[in-house]
Design a protein that fits this description.
heterodimer; A: 111 residues; 6-stranded mixed sheet; 11 strands; B: 115 residues; mainly beta; 0% helix
Chain lengths: 111, 115
Protein backbone atom coordinates (compact mmCIF):
# COMPACT_ATOMS: atom_id res chain seq x y z
CA UNK A 1 0.00 0.00 0.00
CA UNK A 2 1.29 3.44 -0.90
CA UNK A 3 2.11 5.46 2.20
CA UNK A 4 3.44 8.87 3.11
CA UNK A 5 4.69 9.33 6.68
CA UNK A 6 5.88 12.56 8.24
CA UNK A 7 7.96 12.93 11.38
CA UNK A 8 8.00 14.27 13.94
CA UNK A 9 4.31 15.00 14.47
CA UNK A 10 5.17 18.18 16.34
CA UNK A 11 8.30 20.27 16.75
CA UNK A 12 8.97 23.10 19.19
CA UNK A 13 11.93 25.32 18.31
CA UNK A 14 13.50 28.41 19.76
CA UNK A 15 13.89 31.27 17.33
CA UNK A 16 17.13 30.69 15.43
CA UNK A 17 17.28 26.97 16.23
CA UNK A 18 17.59 25.15 12.90
CA UNK A 19 15.95 21.77 12.40
CA UNK A 20 14.68 19.31 9.79
CA UNK A 21 11.35 17.69 9.05
CA UNK A 22 11.14 14.27 7.43
CA UNK A 23 8.75 12.87 4.84
CA UNK A 24 9.24 9.21 3.97
CA UNK A 25 7.28 7.40 1.30
CA UNK A 26 6.71 3.85 0.22
CA UNK A 27 5.19 4.30 -3.20
CA UNK A 28 5.94 3.01 -6.65
CA UNK A 29 6.03 5.23 -9.67
CA UNK A 30 6.68 8.48 -7.84
CA UNK A 31 6.32 11.38 -10.24
CA UNK A 32 6.82 14.20 -7.79
CA UNK A 33 6.96 15.17 -4.12
CA UNK A 34 5.48 18.42 -2.88
CA UNK A 35 5.66 20.51 0.26
CA UNK A 36 2.87 22.73 1.53
CA UNK A 37 2.52 25.07 4.50
CA UNK A 38 -0.77 25.32 6.38
CA UNK A 39 -1.67 27.99 8.93
CA UNK A 40 -4.37 27.19 11.52
CA UNK A 41 -7.88 27.32 10.06
CA UNK A 42 -6.58 28.01 6.55
CA UNK A 43 -6.04 26.08 3.35
CA UNK A 44 -2.53 24.80 2.56
CA UNK A 45 -0.16 26.99 0.58
CA UNK A 46 2.17 25.47 -2.00
CA UNK A 47 5.92 25.67 -1.29
CA UNK A 48 8.00 23.31 -3.45
CA UNK A 49 7.98 20.61 -6.08
CA UNK A 50 10.76 17.98 -6.23
CA UNK A 51 10.87 15.55 -9.12
CA UNK A 52 14.01 13.44 -8.76
CA UNK A 53 16.52 12.22 -6.17
CA UNK A 54 19.23 14.76 -5.48
CA UNK A 55 17.05 17.71 -6.31
CA UNK A 56 16.95 20.67 -3.90
CA UNK A 57 14.72 23.76 -3.71
CA UNK A 58 15.05 26.82 -1.47
CA UNK A 59 12.78 29.60 -0.39
CA UNK A 60 13.88 32.06 2.29
CA UNK A 61 14.66 29.96 5.40
CA UNK A 62 13.28 26.73 3.92
CA UNK A 63 15.19 24.15 1.90
CA UNK A 64 13.68 20.93 0.58
CA UNK A 65 15.71 17.91 -0.52
CA UNK A 66 14.74 14.55 -2.02
CA UNK A 67 16.25 11.07 -1.95
CA UNK A 68 14.83 7.83 -3.33
CA UNK A 69 13.02 7.07 -0.07
CA UNK A 70 12.43 10.37 1.67
CA UNK A 71 12.42 14.13 1.60
CA UNK A 72 13.62 16.63 4.17
CA UNK A 73 12.44 20.15 4.81
CA UNK A 74 15.23 22.07 6.51
CA UNK A 75 14.31 25.21 8.43
CA UNK A 76 17.36 27.42 8.96
CA UNK A 77 17.34 30.02 11.75
CA UNK A 78 13.55 29.94 12.03
CA UNK A 79 11.45 32.92 13.06
CA UNK A 80 8.08 32.85 14.85
CA UNK A 81 6.32 33.49 11.54
CA UNK A 82 7.57 30.09 10.36
CA UNK A 83 5.19 28.47 12.85
CA UNK A 84 2.73 26.37 10.85
CA UNK A 85 1.91 22.81 9.87
CA UNK A 86 4.07 21.55 7.03
CA UNK A 87 2.53 18.92 4.78
CA UNK A 88 4.22 16.76 2.18
CA UNK A 89 2.39 15.04 -0.66
CA UNK A 90 3.26 12.67 -3.49
CA UNK A 91 2.00 12.36 -7.02
CA UNK A 92 1.90 8.82 -8.29
CA UNK A 93 1.16 9.59 -11.90
CA UNK A 94 -2.09 7.69 -11.81
CA UNK A 95 -5.04 8.95 -13.82
CA UNK A 96 -5.71 12.47 -12.72
CA UNK A 97 -3.54 14.84 -10.78
CA UNK A 98 -4.17 13.17 -7.44
CA UNK A 99 -1.92 13.93 -4.50
CA UNK A 100 -1.53 11.69 -1.45
CA UNK A 101 -0.74 13.70 1.68
CA UNK A 102 1.16 12.81 4.81
CA UNK A 103 -0.15 13.66 8.28
CA UNK A 104 1.90 16.84 8.62
CA UNK A 105 4.41 18.24 11.13
CA UNK A 106 3.22 21.05 13.42
CA UNK A 107 6.07 23.50 13.95
CA UNK A 108 6.04 26.09 16.74
CA UNK A 109 8.86 28.62 16.84
CA UNK A 110 9.07 30.51 20.10
CA UNK A 111 10.73 33.93 20.30
CA UNK B 1 -8.08 38.89 -7.28
CA UNK B 2 -8.17 35.33 -8.58
CA UNK B 3 -8.76 32.56 -6.13
CA UNK B 4 -11.05 29.95 -4.65
CA UNK B 5 -14.05 30.85 -2.53
CA UNK B 6 -15.61 28.36 -0.19
CA UNK B 7 -18.85 28.89 1.70
CA UNK B 8 -20.02 28.73 4.34
CA UNK B 9 -16.94 28.97 6.54
CA UNK B 10 -18.76 27.31 9.44
CA UNK B 11 -21.75 25.00 9.22
CA UNK B 12 -23.72 23.09 11.81
CA UNK B 13 -25.85 20.14 10.85
CA UNK B 14 -28.23 17.88 12.65
CA UNK B 15 -27.85 14.17 12.17
CA UNK B 16 -29.81 12.92 9.18
CA UNK B 17 -29.56 16.15 7.21
CA UNK B 18 -27.81 16.63 3.89
CA UNK B 19 -25.68 19.75 3.52
CA UNK B 20 -24.00 21.28 0.49
CA UNK B 21 -20.66 23.08 0.60
CA UNK B 22 -19.98 25.62 -2.12
CA UNK B 23 -16.70 26.01 -4.02
CA UNK B 24 -16.18 28.60 -6.73
CA UNK B 25 -12.93 29.46 -8.56
CA UNK B 26 -12.05 32.24 -10.98
CA UNK B 27 -8.58 30.94 -11.86
CA UNK B 28 -9.79 29.31 -15.09
CA UNK B 29 -8.47 25.96 -13.85
CA UNK B 30 -9.81 22.77 -15.38
CA UNK B 31 -9.28 20.51 -12.36
CA UNK B 32 -11.01 20.83 -8.99
CA UNK B 33 -10.78 18.72 -5.84
CA UNK B 34 -12.41 18.16 -2.48
CA UNK B 35 -10.33 17.09 0.51
CA UNK B 36 -11.28 16.29 4.06
CA UNK B 37 -8.99 17.06 7.01
CA UNK B 38 -9.51 15.69 10.51
CA UNK B 39 -7.73 17.18 13.56
CA UNK B 40 -4.01 16.51 13.52
CA UNK B 41 -4.22 14.61 10.25
CA UNK B 42 -3.33 15.19 6.65
CA UNK B 43 -5.72 15.66 3.76
CA UNK B 44 -7.76 12.82 2.28
CA UNK B 45 -9.23 13.08 -1.21
CA UNK B 46 -13.02 12.81 -1.49
CA UNK B 47 -13.73 13.58 -5.16
CA UNK B 48 -11.96 15.27 -8.04
CA UNK B 49 -12.90 16.55 -11.46
CA UNK B 50 -10.62 17.23 -14.40
CA UNK B 51 -13.24 18.59 -16.75
CA UNK B 52 -16.79 19.84 -16.75
CA UNK B 53 -19.47 17.14 -16.47
CA UNK B 54 -16.95 14.54 -15.33
CA UNK B 55 -15.67 13.58 -11.88
CA UNK B 56 -14.02 10.63 -10.13
CA UNK B 57 -14.14 9.18 -6.65
CA UNK B 58 -11.19 9.73 -4.40
CA UNK B 59 -10.14 7.62 -1.45
CA UNK B 60 -13.12 8.37 0.84
CA UNK B 61 -16.10 9.10 -1.44
CA UNK B 62 -18.72 7.11 0.50
CA UNK B 63 -21.45 9.38 1.87
CA UNK B 64 -20.51 12.29 -0.39
CA UNK B 65 -21.69 13.50 -3.81
CA UNK B 66 -20.53 16.20 -6.22
CA UNK B 67 -21.48 17.83 -9.49
CA UNK B 68 -19.46 19.76 -12.07
CA UNK B 69 -21.94 21.55 -14.31
CA UNK B 70 -19.74 24.64 -14.72
CA UNK B 71 -15.98 25.04 -14.91
CA UNK B 72 -16.03 27.53 -12.05
CA UNK B 73 -18.11 25.51 -9.60
CA UNK B 74 -17.67 22.18 -7.78
CA UNK B 75 -20.17 21.83 -4.92
CA UNK B 76 -19.90 18.99 -2.40
CA UNK B 77 -22.94 17.44 -0.73
CA UNK B 78 -22.40 15.67 2.56
CA UNK B 79 -25.26 13.19 2.80
CA UNK B 80 -26.82 11.56 5.81
CA UNK B 81 -25.04 8.37 4.76
CA UNK B 82 -21.68 9.85 5.82
CA UNK B 83 -21.21 8.33 9.26
CA UNK B 84 -18.68 10.80 10.66
CA UNK B 85 -19.05 14.07 8.77
CA UNK B 86 -17.59 16.47 11.35
CA UNK B 87 -14.38 17.72 9.72
CA UNK B 88 -12.62 20.56 7.91
CA UNK B 89 -13.38 20.47 4.17
CA UNK B 90 -10.99 21.96 1.65
CA UNK B 91 -11.63 22.68 -2.01
CA UNK B 92 -8.73 23.11 -4.42
CA UNK B 93 -8.06 23.64 -8.10
CA UNK B 94 -5.13 23.16 -10.46
CA UNK B 95 -4.11 23.43 -14.08
CA UNK B 96 -4.02 20.24 -16.11
CA UNK B 97 -1.87 21.31 -19.06
CA UNK B 98 1.92 21.55 -19.28
CA UNK B 99 4.40 20.08 -16.81
CA UNK B 100 2.66 18.93 -13.67
CA UNK B 101 3.92 20.95 -10.70
CA UNK B 102 1.70 19.57 -7.95
CA UNK B 103 0.56 23.07 -7.17
CA UNK B 104 -2.95 23.05 -5.84
CA UNK B 105 -4.69 26.31 -5.00
CA UNK B 106 -6.80 25.89 -1.90
CA UNK B 107 -9.78 27.76 -0.54
CA UNK B 108 -10.06 28.86 3.09
CA UNK B 109 -12.03 25.74 4.01
CA UNK B 110 -15.45 24.96 5.48
CA UNK B 111 -15.75 23.56 8.98
CA UNK B 112 -18.73 21.23 9.35
CA UNK B 113 -19.96 20.19 12.78
CA UNK B 114 -22.69 17.63 13.29
CA UNK B 115 -24.74 18.26 16.41
Amino acid sequence: EDQVTQSPEALRLQEGESSSLNCSYTVSGLRGLFWYRQDPGKGPEFLFTLYSAGEEKEKERLKATLTKKESFLHITAPKPEDSATYLCAVHLGAAGNKLTFGGGTRVLVKP
Amino acid sequence: DGGITQSPKYLFRKEGQNVTLSCEQNLNHDAMYWYRQDPGQGLRLIYYSQIVNDFQKGDIAEGYSVSREKKESFPLTVTSAQKNPTAFYLCASSITSGTYTGELFFGEGSRLTVL
